[in-house]
Specification:
The complex is a heterodimer of chains A (about 120) and B (about 110).
Chain A lengths: L4 E3 L2 E4 L5 E6 L6 E7 L6 E7 L2 E4 L8 E4 L6 E5 L8 E8 L9 E2 L3 E5 L1
Parallel strand pairs in A: 2-11
Antiparallel strand pairs in A: 1-3, 3-8, 4-5, 4-9, 5-6, 7-8, 9-10, 9-11
Chain B lengths: L3 E4 L2 E5 L4 E7 L4 E9 L5 E8 L4 E4 L2 E6 L4 E6 L8 E9 L8 E2 L3 E6 L1
Parallel strand pairs in B: 2-11
Antiparallel strand pairs in B: 1-3, 3-8, 4-5, 4-9, 6-7, 7-8, 9-10, 9-11
Classes of the chains: A mainly beta (about 120), B mainly beta (about 110).
Chain lengths: ~120, ~110
């Protein structure tokens, strides 16, 4: 079956621009997560959705970052007024949400470069 | 705040060698610990998940151990192969409440030379 997919795979933008990153979770997975991975580092948690609602957005670094999941499936991470420090790989993961022990399945990521 | 450290940052071994990757965490109140593999340009693949009540998990040539009280985990890879070359990440899930966010280490970049 299909895994988690993310589009675009690469995104180059200029400082100050707005970007949207898309995540398609595994079909039937109700939990969805966004992480950010800087070069040479492990992923850092951004936000977690249960269905349509953000259950935990404590990892979002500031109010320039926002994520939605209007129908409980596809999610979009939105970054306003991008800064060079936003350059990173943005990873999405999903899980079945049958319990906290459920494995999170990761997508290939979107590589964002802010010039 | 939970901190996860992985040593070494990089490791190069000849094919066939057995090896151990180390992971340490500062807060022992964890729900579980996972080891992931990350290939260049790819997402993360879960290798092993150890619940906090367990001591070890095995899958094929991989064996992961957990010593929660000392805040340590090891990933043992037997008879390494060039195809094992990748970055290996460990991550912990906090015990508190319904928290779902994983805290990752920075990874160990493994190269297995043919």
């Amino acid at each position: 079956g299909a895994g988690v997919s993310q589009t675009p795979s690469n995104k180059v933008t200029e400082k100050g621009k707005y970007v949207e990153l898309r995540c398609d979770p595994i079909s039937g997975h109700t939990a969805l997560y966004w992480y950010r991975q800087s070069l040479g580092q492990g992923p850092e948690f951004l936000i977690y959705f249960q269905g349509t609602g953000a259950a935990d957005d404590s990892g979002l670094p500031n109010d320039r970052f926002f994520a939605v999941r209007p129908e409980g499936s596809v999610s979009t991470l939105k970054i306003q007024r991008t800064e060079r420090g936003d350059s990173a790989v943005y990873l999405c993961a999903s899980s079945k949400n049958r319990g906290r022990q459920e494995t999170q399945y990761f997508g290939p990521g979107t590589r964002l470069l802010v010039l | 705040k939970q901190e996860v450290t992985q040593i070494p940052a990089a490791l190069s071994v000849p094919e066939g060698e057995n090896l151990v990757l180390n992971c340490s965490f500062t807060d022992s109140a964890i729900y579980n610990l996972q080891w992931f593999r990350q290939d260049p340009g790819k997402g993360l693949t879960s290798l092993l998940l150890i619940q906090s009540s367990q001591r070890e998990q095995t899958s094929g040539r991989l064996n992961a151990s957990l010593d929660k009280s000392s805040g340590r985990s090891t990933l043992y890879i037997a008879a390494s192969q060039p195809g094992d070359s990748a970055t290996y990440l460990c991550a912990v899930l906090p015990y508190s409440g319904s928290a779902r966010q994983l805290t990752f280490g920075s990874g160990t970049q493994l190269t297995v030379l043919p």
